[in-house]
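lol so apparently i was supposed to do this last week
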Amino acid sequence: MNPKVEKALNEQIHAEFFSYYLYLSVSAYFTANHLDGFAHWMRIQAQEESIHAMKLFDFLAERGGRVELLPLDGPTREWASPSAAVESVLNHERAISERINRLVDLATAENDHATTVMLHWYVSEQVEEEATADSLFHQVKMVESSPHGLLMIDRELAGRPAPAADPAGE
Ligand code: OFO
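anyway here it is w/ hydroxy diiron-OXO moiety bound
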Protein backbone atom coordinates (compact mmCIF):
# COMPACT_ATOMS: atom_id res chain seq x y z
CA MET A 1 0.00 0.00 0.00
CA ASN A 2 1.11 3.58 -0.69
CA PRO A 3 3.12 4.54 2.46
CA LYS A 4 1.80 8.14 2.56
CA VAL A 5 -1.80 6.93 2.45
CA GLU A 6 -1.04 4.19 4.99
CA LYS A 7 0.40 6.76 7.42
CA ALA A 8 -2.55 9.12 6.93
CA LEU A 9 -5.07 6.30 7.47
CA ASN A 10 -3.28 5.33 10.70
CA GLU A 11 -3.51 8.96 11.82
CA GLN A 12 -7.24 8.89 11.02
CA ILE A 13 -7.69 5.72 13.09
CA HIS A 14 -6.06 7.65 15.92
CA ALA A 15 -8.39 10.64 15.37
CA GLU A 16 -11.47 8.37 15.42
CA PHE A 17 -10.32 6.70 18.64
CA PHE A 18 -9.72 10.15 20.11
CA SER A 19 -13.32 10.98 19.13
CA TYR A 20 -14.37 7.84 21.04
CA TYR A 21 -12.48 9.14 24.09
CA LEU A 22 -13.90 12.65 23.78
CA TYR A 23 -17.52 11.46 23.59
CA LEU A 24 -16.95 9.18 26.57
CA SER A 25 -15.52 12.10 28.51
CA VAL A 26 -18.52 14.28 27.61
CA SER A 27 -20.78 11.39 28.63
CA ALA A 28 -19.06 11.19 32.02
CA TYR A 29 -19.48 14.98 32.44
CA PHE A 30 -23.24 14.69 31.82
CA THR A 31 -23.57 11.73 34.18
CA ALA A 32 -21.84 13.77 36.89
CA ASN A 33 -24.32 16.58 36.19
CA HIS A 34 -27.40 14.31 36.39
CA LEU A 35 -28.34 14.61 32.73
CA ASP A 36 -28.54 10.91 32.01
CA GLY A 37 -30.18 11.25 28.58
CA PHE A 38 -27.31 13.42 27.36
CA ALA A 39 -24.84 10.97 28.91
CA HIS A 40 -26.53 8.07 27.10
CA TRP A 41 -26.52 9.90 23.75
CA MET A 42 -22.80 10.72 24.04
CA ARG A 43 -22.00 7.15 24.98
CA ILE A 44 -23.83 5.82 21.92
CA GLN A 45 -21.90 8.34 19.81
CA ALA A 46 -18.66 7.03 21.35
CA GLN A 47 -19.66 3.54 20.14
CA GLU A 48 -20.17 4.96 16.64
CA GLU A 49 -16.69 6.47 16.75
CA SER A 50 -15.10 3.13 17.57
CA ILE A 51 -16.95 1.66 14.58
CA HIS A 52 -15.51 4.46 12.39
CA ALA A 53 -12.00 3.62 13.65
CA MET A 54 -12.47 -0.11 13.09
CA LYS A 55 -13.73 0.35 9.52
CA LEU A 56 -10.38 2.03 8.72
CA PHE A 57 -8.51 -0.62 10.71
CA ASP A 58 -10.12 -3.39 8.63
CA PHE A 59 -9.64 -1.49 5.37
CA LEU A 60 -5.90 -1.10 6.01
CA ALA A 61 -5.56 -4.83 6.66
CA GLU A 62 -7.60 -5.65 3.55
CA ARG A 63 -5.31 -3.49 1.39
CA GLY A 64 -2.13 -5.03 2.75
CA GLY A 65 -1.31 -2.03 4.96
CA ARG A 66 -0.06 -2.18 8.51
CA VAL A 67 -2.11 -0.82 11.40
CA GLU A 68 -0.17 1.30 13.85
CA LEU A 69 -2.05 2.30 16.99
CA LEU A 70 -0.79 5.69 18.17
CA PRO A 71 -0.98 6.86 21.80
CA LEU A 72 -4.10 8.74 22.88
CA ASP A 73 -4.09 11.93 24.96
CA GLY A 74 -6.69 12.35 27.69
CA PRO A 75 -9.59 14.54 26.52
CA THR A 76 -10.99 17.54 28.44
CA ARG A 77 -13.18 16.39 31.32
CA GLU A 78 -14.82 19.60 32.55
CA TRP A 79 -16.96 22.17 30.75
CA ALA A 80 -18.54 25.41 31.97
CA SER A 81 -22.06 24.40 30.90
CA PRO A 82 -23.99 21.74 28.94
CA SER A 83 -23.89 23.93 25.83
CA ALA A 84 -20.10 24.32 26.17
CA ALA A 85 -19.76 20.52 26.29
CA VAL A 86 -21.92 20.09 23.17
CA GLU A 87 -20.06 22.93 21.45
CA SER A 88 -16.77 21.13 22.03
CA VAL A 89 -18.06 18.06 20.16
CA LEU A 90 -19.43 20.29 17.37
CA ASN A 91 -16.00 21.93 16.95
CA HIS A 92 -14.39 18.52 17.07
CA GLU A 93 -16.66 17.19 14.30
CA ARG A 94 -15.80 20.22 12.14
CA ALA A 95 -12.10 19.46 12.61
CA ILE A 96 -12.70 15.79 11.75
CA SER A 97 -14.48 16.82 8.53
CA GLU A 98 -11.45 18.88 7.54
CA ARG A 99 -9.19 15.91 8.24
CA ILE A 100 -11.35 13.64 6.06
CA ASN A 101 -11.31 16.18 3.24
CA ARG A 102 -7.49 16.36 3.40
CA LEU A 103 -7.36 12.56 3.36
CA VAL A 104 -9.51 12.46 0.22
CA ASP A 105 -7.18 15.05 -1.37
CA LEU A 106 -4.16 12.89 -0.53
CA ALA A 107 -5.69 9.62 -1.77
CA THR A 108 -6.73 11.36 -5.00
CA ALA A 109 -3.28 12.91 -5.52
CA GLU A 110 -1.71 9.48 -4.96
CA ASN A 111 -4.13 7.83 -7.43
CA ASP A 112 -5.34 5.52 -4.66
CA HIS A 113 -8.85 5.02 -6.02
CA ALA A 114 -9.84 2.29 -3.55
CA THR A 115 -9.08 4.59 -0.61
CA THR A 116 -10.83 7.55 -2.26
CA VAL A 117 -14.01 5.51 -2.77
CA MET A 118 -13.88 4.10 0.77
CA LEU A 119 -13.51 7.64 2.16
CA HIS A 120 -16.68 8.84 0.44
CA TRP A 121 -18.63 7.09 3.20
CA TYR A 122 -16.80 9.25 5.78
CA VAL A 123 -17.47 12.44 3.80
CA SER A 124 -21.24 11.77 3.94
CA GLU A 125 -21.06 10.66 7.56
CA GLN A 126 -19.37 13.93 8.54
CA VAL A 127 -22.14 15.97 6.91
CA GLU A 128 -24.61 14.14 9.16
CA GLU A 129 -22.45 14.34 12.29
CA GLU A 130 -21.86 18.07 11.95
CA ALA A 131 -25.55 18.74 11.30
CA THR A 132 -26.62 16.67 14.33
CA ALA A 133 -24.09 18.29 16.68
CA ASP A 134 -24.98 21.76 15.35
CA SER A 135 -28.69 21.26 15.90
CA LEU A 136 -28.16 19.83 19.40
CA PHE A 137 -25.88 22.75 20.29
CA HIS A 138 -28.46 25.33 19.20
CA GLN A 139 -31.29 23.56 21.02
CA VAL A 140 -29.30 23.38 24.25
CA LYS A 141 -28.25 27.03 23.91
CA MET A 142 -31.92 28.02 23.52
CA VAL A 143 -33.09 26.34 26.72
CA GLU A 144 -29.99 26.60 28.86
CA SER A 145 -31.49 29.05 31.32
CA SER A 146 -34.55 26.83 31.83
CA PRO A 147 -34.01 23.50 33.63
CA HIS A 148 -37.38 22.36 32.29
CA GLY A 149 -36.24 22.76 28.67
CA LEU A 150 -32.97 20.99 29.38
CA LEU A 151 -34.81 18.07 30.98
CA MET A 152 -37.11 17.79 27.96
CA ILE A 153 -34.09 17.46 25.64
CA ASP A 154 -32.53 15.05 28.10
CA ARG A 155 -35.60 12.79 27.92
CA GLU A 156 -35.50 12.85 24.14
CA LEU A 157 -31.79 12.00 23.97
CA ALA A 158 -32.32 9.03 26.30
CA GLY A 159 -34.09 7.25 23.43
CA ARG A 160 -31.12 7.08 21.05
CA PRO A 161 -30.71 3.46 19.91
CA ALA A 162 -27.36 1.64 19.82
CA PRO A 163 -25.59 1.82 16.44
CA ALA A 164 -25.66 -1.07 13.98
CA ALA A 165 -22.35 -2.98 14.04
CA ASP A 166 -21.48 -1.59 10.63
CA PRO A 167 -23.44 1.57 9.71
CA ALA A 168 -22.53 1.14 6.04
CA GLY A 169 -24.10 -2.31 6.09
CA GLU A 170 -20.99 -3.96 4.66
FE1 OFO B 1 -16.04 9.66 13.34
O1 OFO B 1 -17.28 10.94 13.13
FE2 OFO B 1 -17.45 11.90 14.69
O2 OFO B 1 -15.76 12.27 15.06
